[in-house]
Design goal:
The structure holds three protein chains of three kinds.
Chain A lengths: L23 E12 L2 E12 L3 E5 L6 H8 L9 E9 L2 E2 L7 H7 E4 L10 H11 L5 H14 L3 H4 L12 H13 L5 E5 L7 H14 L4 E5 L3 H7 L2 E7 L5 E8 H6 L4 H7 L5
Parallel strand pairs in A: 3-8, 3-9, 6-7, 7-8
Antiparallel strand pairs in A: 1-2, 1-4, 4-5, 9-10
Helix pairs in contact in A: 3-4, 3-6, 4-6
Chain B lengths: L2 H7 L2 H42 L4 H5 L13 H31 L4 H14 L3 H16 L4 H26 L2 H9 L4 H29 L3 H6 L8 H10 L4 H9 L6 H10 L3 H37 L1
Helix pairs in contact in B: 2-14, 4-5, 4-7, 4-9, 4-13, 5-7, 6-7, 7-9, 8-9, 9-14, 11-12, 13-14
Chain C lengths: L2 H34 L2 H32 L3 H34 L10 H22 L2 H6 L4 H21 L4 H33 L14
Helix pairs in contact in C: 1-2, 1-3, 1-4, 2-3, 3-7, 4-6, 4-7, 6-7
The chains are: A alpha/beta, B mainly alpha, C mainly alpha.
């Protein structure tokens, strides 16, 4: 089956916001992302609800990660990357001229696919962020480190060995350490790029449980190619696909329960039932 | 069994035997060749050990050379000289080398980055005597005298390409996500390089430095033209004299580097040419010391890395 | 893609059709046995019901296995949930046939209070409705599914007729109550049988559209 499906007029079915649940924390308006001449994302409109988990799903290469990395301007690091349109965090466009990128990155944290702790101690890993922002007193750092590690459901396992290297932990523990590290700077939004794909099933389930706790305080956006995970974990799901010009587009966005029991777009239906790519 | 399975199953036993023979042959062949390749190393070590071992005693290490014709004496001046010169070389070479490598790794495609990498390759091919000549005309002549400083500078130039290249390679090995994680937390580039990339690549960087050091310590040609040689070189004495004369630490240090110094390769070269058998004997001893020095540096490098990675793995 | 899954779903559908035709046969046979006062046949029909029950459990088992192993979503999920529902409906419909067979056995030697004319007509109608409803279910034919429940009106009308007739007998002679009841219960079973067919039709609509809609019998069914 062809991975590039024709863009039909069913674009009119798409709604960028799901009525009912709370504020939009992150608002994407007419976003397009270019790598030099190539348009990787086109016409992206999306309102991410506050303190909910929003999953972005779609076949490989449809631009999910590109979209995710736009939320904290990590795309700036790729040479030749241009962004059109706007992404608003609490109403303010993060791509406006003069915006402090460092501040954005503090408010919008990121957890990556493979656990990537720094070659420092466990304490050093988690304290790295707060230190960047001027927190120097040992008592303050101790408090932040403990709070973040507790939030990442890792405290009991590492409280007696905070000085040991972060790399001495198991894969699942390392990923939770990375989550603690991201939480230490008190972000508002946490981006997760396939956070459990490199982990075993038990660690994966722990991370999923953790997300349910975290969403009480943070807005979480997760990219995943594992549909069952998206179904288990998220409140809202956004479905993406690439068009004939290889640009990623939003196909459908709705409550997760709806997407997986009665999606409105046939392409979404084909994807979630596995009849497609 | 399918048709093909039958075909492949035929001659099972004889092919098995053939395989065993082939394995054994290859093993012996490669083993033999390896042994062959190791022969020069062990021959040299053995030869130097035997010829040089005769003269090694404590005196050798703690005494200055005696005037010609007299027996005894040591190569303290050469040892101290080598230490001074290599220390200076490291001091001059590491900061620019490491920083240049950071730049090249981060911005490989800018004009400066391209030029840097190209120049490094070219520099590593420049003969060491040419480097010595360069240091002579650039430092010795303006200063008016030979010095350890000039020797250190010359060796630094020789060490530079190795340091840059190894550091750059090590930095490239650091996973990109580590950098992204740091930037994602809001760290600026320089902090990321300093606090994350550098520690991550550090064991490789140290290896590169030690390898460069081991090479530089054995270079004779550049030292010929920059340090001259100085059988009276004795740091302890300089220190004592300076303290007695109430000189500042800086002045003392300056006087250490600002005079001709001896060094092991230089001493070897000189002694080996002299007609006195004791001197020739001493040359062999120097060779042994030099070799030991290089061996120790290499081995400690490896041990250090082992420890480091064991500690990292927790 | 998902050839294995598709094949398993097809097999499930086949099983459901098979179960359906067993039920159709049972209901026709039970009424025929009653008409002919064939007690032997009624005993056979009674025992046959066990096979229908085990079919239902087999289908349920298979649906659970598919849900656990294939993670069905959207349409597939609605289909499997509906197959579960429909197999339960069919099982109860089979029980109606068993009930009619029991009535026949209970009647024993007594002659029926009146010759059976409307009751067999009800059976034929209901059985036909079931057959068409199941076909619509398997083919996800929403149009047919929406139309079939209208036919329930006929069955209801026949039921009312039977009821009225039987009441006249009872009023005429209260001792007729028992014999009238036998037939009343039979007609009642058939009327309930037809009602359940409507449920199956609603399930068909659900699979296709994802909406739970009642298909009313008072003209609501069409569009």
């Amino acid at each position: 089956m062809d991975m590039e499906m024709k863009m039909e007029i069913s674009e009119s079915v798409y709604k960028p916001i799901v009525e009912g649940d709370g504020q939009a924390k992150v608002d994407v308006k007419n976003l397009a992302v270019y790598y030099s001449k190539f348009r990787a994302l086109a016409d992206i409109n999306l309102s991410v609800h506050e303190q909910k988990i929003t999953a972005i799903i779609g076949p490989s290469g449809c631009g999910k990660s590109t979209l995710l990395r736009s939320f904290n301007r990590m795309n700036d690091l790729t040479p030749g990357c241009r962004v059109q349109g706007a992404i608003s965090l609490d109403g303010e466009d993060i791509y406006a001229p003069g915006v402090d990128v460092v501040d954005i990155r503090r408010r919008v944290g990121m957890v990556f696919q493979r656990p990537n702790p720094f070659p420092k101690s466990i304490y050093g890993n988690v304290a790295y962020g707060p230190r960047l922002y001027g927190i120097r007193r040992k008592s303050d750092l101790d408090e932040i480190v403990e709070k973040s590690i507790r939030q990442a459901a890792l405290w009991d396992e590492v409280k007696d060995k905070l000085h040991q290297s972060g790399l001495s932990l198991s894969g699942g523990q390392q990923q939770r350490l990375c989550i603690a590290r991201a939480l230490a700077v008190e972000p508002e939004v946490v981006l997760m790029d396939e956070p459990a794909s490199a982990l075993d099933p038990i660690s994966t389930l722990r991370i999923e449980e953790l997300m349910q706790d975290l969403k009480k305080e943070y807005t979480i956006i997760i990219v995943t190619h594992n549909m069952q995970q998206a179904a288990r974990v998220s409140d809202y799901t956004a479905m993406m696909m690439i068009d004939d010009q290889r640009a990623g587009r939003m196909i459908e966005y709705d409550r997760t329960n709806t997407i997986f029991t009665r999606p409105k777009d046939k392409r979404t239906e084909d994807y979630v039932t596995g009849r497609f790519g | 069994m399918s048709h093909f399975a039958e075909l492949m199953d035929r001659n099972r036993v004889s092919r098995g035997r053939q395989r065993k023979v082939a394995n054994a042959t290859m093993l012996s062949l490669t083993g033999l060749v390896t042994a062959l390749a190791l022969i020069p190393l062990f021959w040299i070590i053995g030869y130097v050990l035997i010829r040089g071992g005769k003269n090694i005693n404590l005196d050798f290490f703690i005494h200055l050379p005696r005037p010609l014709g007299m027996t005894g004496g040591g190569v303290l001046s050469a040892i101290e000289g080598t230490l001074v010169v290599t220390f200076l070389a490291a001091l001059f070479a590491i900061p620019p080398g490491v920083l240049a490598a950071f730049y090249a790794a981060r911005y490989p495609n800018t004009p400066l980055g391209v030029v840097l990498r190209f120049s490094t390759d070219v520099l590593s091919g420049v003969p060491s005597i040419v480097v010595g000549l360069f240091a002579y005309s650039a430092i010795v002549v303006p200063m008016g005298h030979y010095s350890g400083l000039a020797g250190g500078a010359a060796l630094a130039v020789i060490m530079l390409p190795t340091i840059i290249r190894t550091t750059e390679e090590m930095l490239k090995l650091v996973p990109a996500t580590l950098r992204e994680a740091s930037l994602g937390l809001g760290a600026p580039e320089w902090k990321t390089s300093l606090s994350v990339l550098f520690p991550a690549a550090s064991s490789g960087i140290v290896t590169g430095f030690l390898l460069a050091l081991a090479r530089a310590a054995g270079e004779t040609a550049p030292l010929l033209m920059t340090t001259l040689g100085n059988e009276r070189f004795d740091i302890g004495q300089i220190f004592r004299a300076g303290v007695q004369g109430h000189k500042s630490v800086f002045t003392i240090l300056w006087s250490i580097v600002n005079q001709p110094v001896d060094s092991l390769p230089l001493a070897l070269w000189k002694y080996a040419q002299q007609p006195y058998p004791e001197r020739v004997q001493q040359a062999w001893a120097v060779a042994l010391v030099l070799m030991l020095f290089v061996l120790i540096v290499n081995i400690s490098a490896r041990v250090w890395i082992q420890n480091r990675s064991r500690r990292m793995k927790g | 893609m998902r050839k294995t899954f598709e094949i398993e779903i097809q097999q499930l559908k086949d099983e459901l059709l098979l179960m359906g035709s067993m039920v159709e046969q049972q209901i026709m046979d039970s009424v025929e046995a009653l008409r002919k006062r064939d007690i032997e046949a009624s005993h056979r029909i009674f025992n046959e019901d066990a096979k229908i029950n085990s079919k239902r459990f087999g289908i349920e088992e298979q649906v659970m296995i598919l849900i656990a192993t294939q993670q069905p979503m959207a349409h597939d999920l609605r289909l499997l949930a509906s197959i579960l529902e429909v197999s339960a409906e069919l099982e109860r419909m089979g029980d109606y046939a068993k009930g009619i067979a029991t009535i026949n056995i209970r009647m024993g030697g007594e002659p029926p209070i009146k010759p059976l004319i409307d009751i067999p007509r009800m059976a034929e109608k209901a059985s036909g409705m079931l057959h068409r409803a199941l076909t619509a279910f398997i083919n996800e034919d929403v149009e047919s599914a929406k139309a079939i429940p209208n036919e329930d009106d006929e069955v209801d009308a026949l039921y009312t007729q039977v009821y009225r007739e039987l009441m006249t007998f009872v009023v005429a002679d209260p001792k007729n109550i028992d014999r009238a009841n036998f037939l009343l219960w039979t007609a009642h079973n058939l009327e309930r049988f037809a009602d359940r067919v409507t449920n199956i039709c609603e399930r068909t609509v659900f699979i296709a559209t994802g909406e739970h809609k009642e298909i009313g019998t008072s003209g609501d069914g069409s569009m």
